[in-house]
Amino acid sequence: MSRFPENRRFDPEKFESGPQALRQAVSGPIEALKGFFAALEAGDSVAACSYVYTTSYGMSFVTWGVISIYNLVGRTRFYEMRYRETFNDGSRARVYVRGKMDYGDQLGMVVNRYQLDGEAELRIQDGAWKVFSLPPYTHVGTDMRETPGPSAVRGVRPHAGREARALHRRVVALPWWWLPSSRKKR
After folding, report:
1. Long-range contact list for 128-132, CB < 8 A, 24+ apart?
2. For the whole model, what pTM was predicted?
3. What gap in Å lies between CA 91 and CA 122, rounded to an integer?
4. Angle at 17 between CA 45 and CA 113, to 5 degrees
5. How far is CA 32 from CA 29, 51, 119, in A?
């Protein structure tokens, strides 16, 4: 039966996507894919698992659910991910991967969508599995949201300036005898 080595649980100390990589800024779909493979358990198939990857605090942990990787400059989400071994001689393995990946910035203003379909290669190096080649991924689209204007960031109503100018026009349009300076002259 084809399996990964005896220690099949994810050990962050033994993967290049673990704490060593956390000391560097991690971004982009390639690094996100490495995090996905580091989180995978051995087996013929697996439901999407969640790997939360936080570089700002140096934490990494695995839970079940949808895969999400958060880092200093972006957020990556995996869904509908499936994999199966196609070859494993105990020191090298090929894994066929199919799924979808979203990679975007922290605010979610720009999200790039990727489709994954192909094989990845893993090898044992220094007693642990290392990712040597990632599955091919294709960019299938980009979603962009409008960025909020500076007034929205400051908490000011977006049309406050326009309302003030309109009020000023209304005051100026009053008859001259309503103006304070004209009353003093009388």
Report:
1. 128/11, 128/14, 128/15, 129/4, 129/5, 129/14, 129/15, 129/93, 130/15, 130/16, 131/16, 131/17, 131/33, 131/34, 131/37, 131/38
2. 0.45
3. 8
4. 65
5. 5, 10, 16
Kindly report the three-state secondary structure assignment for every residue of the chain.
CCCCCCCCCCCHHHCCCCHHHHCCCCCHHHHHHHHHHHHCCCCCCCCCEEEEEECCCCEEEEEECCEEEECCCCEEEEEEEEEEEEEECCCEEEEEEEEEEEEECCCCCEEEEEEEEEEEEEEEECCEEEEEECCCEEEEEEEECCCCCHHHHHCCCCCHHHHHHHHHHHHHCCCHHHCHHHHHHC
Structure tokens at 100: 């979808």
- 48-78 pLDDT, tens digit per residue, is 333 333 333 333 333 333 444 444 445 666 6
Instruction: Supply 116's token pair.
Output: 């994954």
